[in-house]
Amino acid sequence: MFSDYSTAELVSIFAMQGFAGLILFSVFVLMALGLAIIFGQMGVINMAHGEFMILGAYVTYLISNLFSEYMPALFGIYFFIAMIAAFFTAGALGAFVEWAMIRHLYKRPLDTLLATWGLSLIMQQLYRTVFGAREVGVSLPDWLMGSIPMTDTIDIPINGLFVMGLTIVISVSVYLLMFKSRWGGQVRAVVQNRPMAGAVGINTEKSDRMTFALGCAIAGVAGSAFTMIGSTGPTAGQLYIVDTFLVVVFGGAQSLLGTIASAFTISQAQSTMEFFLSGSMAKVLTLLVVVGILMLRPQGLFALKIRH
Amino acid sequence: MSKTTLRAFMPRQDLISFVVLAVVIFIVMPLCTDIFRLNLIGKYLTYAFVAVGLVLCWGYGGILSLGQGVFFGLGGYCMAMFLKLEASTPEATKIQSTPGIPDFMDWNQLTELPWFWEPFHSLPFTIIAVLVVPTIFAYIIGVAMFKRRVGGVYFAIITQAIASILTILIIGQQGYTGGVNGITDLRTLLGWDIRTDSAKYVLYFVNGILLFACLLFAQFVRKSKLGRILLAMREREDRVRFSGYDVSNFKTFVFCMGAAFSAIGGAMFTLQVGFMSPSFVGIVPSIELVIFCAVGGRMSIIGAVYGTLLINWAKTTFSESFPELWLFAMGALFIGVVMAFPSGLAGLYQTHAKPWVDKALFKLLSQRESTNSNSPVTAD
């Protein structure tokens, strides 16, 4: 299938598809980071994670409308405010959900799956009632539009670059928060040995709530970033949830580095194959390979060595 | 079978609930509803096959599969392929550019029947395929996962991914599978028109009898030693393994059984509803099937049937009149079942209604006894 293209064409195909893959990678990482915290650290299966992401997207949509209506002069920077708002809205809802629902189910991880699926149905219908069934998009400020021409055949879109930069910033902050801060140490202590963590004076309930809220808040930011490259509809969250779970499981649930590595592998494989096969076949092949590898290596690529 | 083994297989309590269910399905429903509603109920009952399989897999074995829609769909598609071939005779499809192949293939510029469609000209092959294809598929998944001790949450996520893969595949390969519309416009089964009212009646009863066959098989598994091993495995898997049992074999068996049940349900669905589409294969229907089982009670095979009937009936009535509210209600139901009554309808009956029913029965019986014992006194 390569014989139809010249070498130069192939290089630019791979470069363009590689870049498209990098954007997909950013979306995966943003969604999967939140999930990796919730699922990997707490063992809770949050099927409503996609809906938290959509919440962030809708918050961004509202704020962009607000700015273009009342403060057109500041429209260039609305995105940063929207992201902060998305972070706190999704985080607050996450904390509430943890208090109302999840904390009763820590001993039954499979049941968290069903309960959060119910939550996701409710949230979807809520979005549909409030925002309508149609997809909505936000208008980007001028400085985010357009693209940088690298060569004659390769163009790099600026919004893609911005999303990638954002992903790096968020990944690094999550890493610092989880592995370098006092709070992250407490979270990891609670996850590894709950009674012992409680015995040394860590408030385990509070730690759980903050962890869950943080995971949801990151999903909110992901949704906010997502509006820059695609439109948002009530059911958009569901499209990503299986992929995201696979990313997290494939990378090894408890390893944040693994999550990033597997997001990279899956997104690159998918976007490179997408050019040569139809989109659906590329996805089928990628998922099949991931499932196949998971059958051989159930703990994922980067499993922590723990005795069970 | 001697009387004691029969009693062990079917205690009186279970016998009563089986009889009640039989009366409901075979007598009450056909008498009380018109053929349109009866056909709907028949459709709901095809989901009950899946729910019964899930009771054994999930309630007893502790394996939550979020991919039961895959097996339902495979069974349904096998049956649909046979019916479609029968409906696309060269005479019926003579306006196509290639007569004799299903219409959607013609629309997708296919000029001959794909090789894997060929054997579906024969009904015996189709019936075997309905049972065997999903079971083998389940066996491969089961062996690959359980031998590697993939369980619990990871198993659920992987089965979900498989459901997603199959849906994308079916939708993507439009020429071979009918794409997102599925296989539609099915007419006859060996020349017998399945769209007439009388055929719908017959199919409803066939469906009911097959469901009872599955229920009896499930009851057999539940009451046999296998059922106890499954329960033990769910509670303490490593202990069962240390006692010398090969846990993965038991898990694979019960998973395959659930798959076979689902496939029968899928095939009956195609026959009664007259089409099959990828919307019954993916993640959303698969999770809905789990909730049917959870509402009925994850430990009760009879409860699973009632749960399925109740939710689907509610879904139809609600979404006819309040389509907006239905998703809210469904979501609340998911949360409610998990949080408030994890053992479902069967559990509610056990804790609340059963003491009352038992008391009423006891009263009835003791009254009869007391009138019996009183009668000589009154004679005096």
Characterize the structure shown.
The complex is a heterodimer of chains A (308) and B (380). Chain A has 308 residues and is mostly helical. Chain A has a domain at 22-236. Chain A is built from 11 helices and 2 strands; from the N terminus they run ααααββααααααα. Chain A has helices at 7-42, 49-70, 78-100, 109-131, 158-179, 182-192, 194-199, 204-226, 236-251, 256-276, 279-296; strands at residues 147-149, 155-157. Chain A has a two-stranded antiparallel sheet with strand order 1-2. In chain A, strand 1 (147-149) and strand 2 form a beta hairpin. Chain A is globular, with a radius of gyration of 20 Å. Chain A starts with 6 loop residues before the first helix and ends in a 12-residue tail after the last helix. By secondary structure, chain B is mostly helical. Chain B has one domain (10-295). Chain B contains 16 helices and 2 strands. In chain B, strands 1-2 form a two-stranded antiparallel ribbon. Mean pLDDT of chain B is 85; it is low at 374-380. Chains A and B meet through helix 4, helix 9 and helix 11 of A and helix 7, helix 13 and helix 15 of B.
Q: Cα distance, first to last residue of chain A?
A: 47 Å
For the CA atoms, what is the radius of gyration of chain B?
23 Å
Number of E-type strands of chain B: 2
The SS-based structural class of chain B is: mainly alpha
The biggest sheet of chain A, with number of strands, parallel, antiparallel or mixed sense and barrel status, is: 2 strands, antiparallel
**What is the number of helical segments of chain A per DSSP (H or I, 4+ residues)?**
11
The gist of it:
Chain A is mainly α. Chain A has helices at 7-42, 49-70, 78-100, 109-131, 158-179, 182-192, 194-199, 204-226, 236-251, 256-276, 279-296; strands at 147-149, 155-157.
Layout: helices, strands, pairs:
The complex is a heterodimer of chains A (308) and B (380).
Chain A: H1 7-42, H2 49-70, H3 78-100, H4 109-131, E1 147-149, E2 155-157, H5 158-179, H6 182-192, H7 194-199, H8 204-226, H9 236-251, H10 256-276, H11 279-296
Antiparallel strand pairs in A: 1-2
Helix pairs in contact in A: 1-5, 1-8, 1-9, 1-10, 2-3, 2-4, 2-8, 2-9, 3-8, 5-6, 6-8, 9-10, 9-11, 10-11
Chain B: H1 3-9, H2 12-32, H3 35-60, H4 68-87, H5 103-107, H6 123-147, H7 152-172, H8 174-177, E1 188-189, E2 192-193, H9 197-223, H10 225-235, H11 237-242, H12 247-273, H13 283-296, H14 301-321, H15 323-339, H16 344-379
Antiparallel strand pairs in B: 1-2
Helix pairs in contact in B: 2-9, 3-9, 3-12, 3-13, 3-14, 4-6, 4-12, 6-12, 9-10, 9-12, 13-14, 13-16, 14-15
